Amino acid sequence: MIKKLADNISNYIVRELKYDDKRREIISYGLEVFLGTSIQTISILILAYCLNIFKSTVFVSISFIIFRRIIGGSHANTYKRCYFFSIFIMLLAGVSGEIINLETIHILISILLVYILAVIATILWIPAGTEKKQIKNKITRRKIKIETIILLTIWALVCSYLSNIGTFKYVISCLLGVILAFFLATPLGYRFISFKLIKNKSKIKGG
Amino acid sequence: MLKNLKAFLLSSAACLFTLIAMSGVSTKSMLFTYEPDIPESIKRDL
Question: Which residue spans traverse the membrane (chain A) (predicted)?
Answer without folding.
Answer: 26-47, 53-71, 83-100, 106-126, 146-164, 170-193
